[in-house]
Amino acid sequence: MTNQKIIPIGRKVLLKNKSPEQYYAGTRIIRTEAQEEFVADIVAIGELVENLNIGDTVKYSEHSMGMDMMHDGDKVLLVNADMIFAKIVNV
Fold first, then answer.
1. Alpha carbon distance 40, 66 (integer Å)
2. Residue-range domains of the chain with CATH
3. CA–CA separation, 48 vs 58, rounded Å?
4. By CB distance 3.0 to 4.6 Å, which of 8, 40, 59, 74 could disulfide with 15?
5. pLDDT in tens, 25-63
6. Amino acid 24: pLDDT
7. Residues 38 and 22: beta-carbon distance below 8 Å
């Protein structure tokens, strides 16, 4: 079942966690400690989710009670849209 597709329903969002940055910002100094940043890319959204799109990068709550799942062979997290705090936009 590694090639299954997950389609969120209602206000659910499917997130794929991003790896913590390997270097300190603006340098080539390697980070020795890796803290989970709770930043993810949106893989799929339910039909009732507004203001978010597939491909958006978001910051979500570390206390979100999500469900770990496999989607297209990747480990993803299914959470309520209310657990997403912000959309991250690089300018």
1. 13
2. 12-88 (2.30.33.40)
3. 18
4. 40
5. 677 666 666 567 899 999 999 999 999 999 999 999 988
6. 62
7. no
Amino acid (one-letter) located at 24? Y
Q: Is the pTM of this model over 0.90?
A: no
Tokens of 89: 């936009």
| Model pLDDT, residue 35 | 66
- Give DSSP secondary structure letters for the chain: -TT------TTEEEEEEPPPPSB-TTS-PBPS------EEEEEEE-TT--S--TT-EEEE-TT---EEEEETTEEEEEEEGGGEEEEE---
Cβ(32)–Cβ(69) below 8 Å:
no
* Residue 2: other Cβ atoms inside 10 A: 8
Average pLDDT, the chain: 86
